[in-house]
Design brief:
The chain has 255 residues and is α+β, with helices and mostly antiparallel strands. The protein has one domain: Creatine Amidinohydrolase. Helices cover 29% and strands 23% of the residues. It is built from four helices and 14 strands. A hairpin with a 2-residue loop joins strand 4 and strand 5. Helix 1 runs antiparallel to helix 2 and helix 3 packs antiparallel against helix 4. The longest helix is centred in the N-terminal third of the chain and has 24 residues. The chain starts with 6 loop residues before the first helix and ends in a 5-residue tail after the last strand.
């Protein structure tokens, strides 16, 4: 069911968005060569406890997951595209890392993701991250009251296709509110003027994720991590936004 939030409810969602943004900012500063993925997860978990927040991931067990996720942070490295399950791995020079984080504060949820390179970057990785960030910005810009969800999806896809990338639409953005994943689905490619009409009070996450050489994925033996079929690297970025008559509000905007 799609729910529209009142202005008061949107104001109540701002603190969780700000907290998610602050955690990702801190994680980006902590991520470095030699840092273990389990350290990053523990760091995020400590911030959750200090804030009195609640992880959306630990007990999350959708149909595509082999078991409850069990961690508070998705850490997708190199050919891992989405849902990277933190494990005993120390980041190496040049690794492309995507960090996805969602929590609930006072009953409201926010969801966001960043991609970065630790150590010495490959130019093609920086270009891929820049493309996903431009696609996210294009999707946000299209998220105007009176438009339709297809306008958001088409804006994202146009950026990807202009960069020579193909797009997987199996996973994308989603409604956000009292739970992490709700309606509507927000594909990363689509046709303008199609789909659900964007109305003030609608809150959803926009999350472009692109791989260098394919749009096909497979599930890692860990039962969660989704990897590119050809081993190419992936980038993933995400913001939770709200539709208003004055334009979209990015609830998870980072300083």
């Amino acid at each position: 069911m799609i729910e529209l939030r009142t202005p008061a409810e949107l104001d109540a969602m701002r603190p969780v968005g700000q907290f998610v943004a602050s955690v990702l900012t801190a994680l980006a500063e902590k991520a470095d060569v030699g840092v273990n993925l389990l350290e990053l997860d523990a760091f995020a978990h400590a911030m959750i406890r200090e804030r009195g927040a609640e992880s959306c991931y630990i007990d999350y067990h959708p149909s595509f997951g082999a078991m409850p996720f069990g961690k508070v942070l998705c850490t997708s490295v190199n050919d891992a595209a989405l849902h990277g399950l933190p494990h005993d791995y120390a980041l190496q020079d040049g690794d492309l890392v995507s960090l996805d984080f969602a929590v609930s504060v006072d009953g409201w949820v926010a969801d966001s993701a960043i991609s970065l390179v630790v150590g010495t970057p490959r130019p093609e990785d920086l270009a891929l991250i820049e493309t996903t960030e431009r696609a996210l910005a294009a999707g946000i810009a299209a998220a105007q009251a009176g438009n339709r969800m297809g306008d958001v999806s088409a804006a994202i896809g146009d950026v990807a296709h202009a960069a020579g990338l193909s797009v997987n639409t199996d996973f994308g953005g989603h409604g956000v509110g009292r739970t992490m994943h709700g309606d509507p689905h927000v594909p990363n490619d689509g046709r303008p003027r199609r789909g659900y009409p964007l109305k003030p009070g609608l809150v959803f996450a926009i999350e472009p994720w692109f791989m260098h050489g394919t749009d096909q994925i497979f599930t890692d033996p860990d039962g969660w991590t989704l990897r590119s079929l050809d081993g190419s690297r992936s980038a993933h970025v995400e913001h939770t936004i709200a539709i208003t008559n004055d334009g979209p509000i990015v609830l998870t905007a980072r300083p």
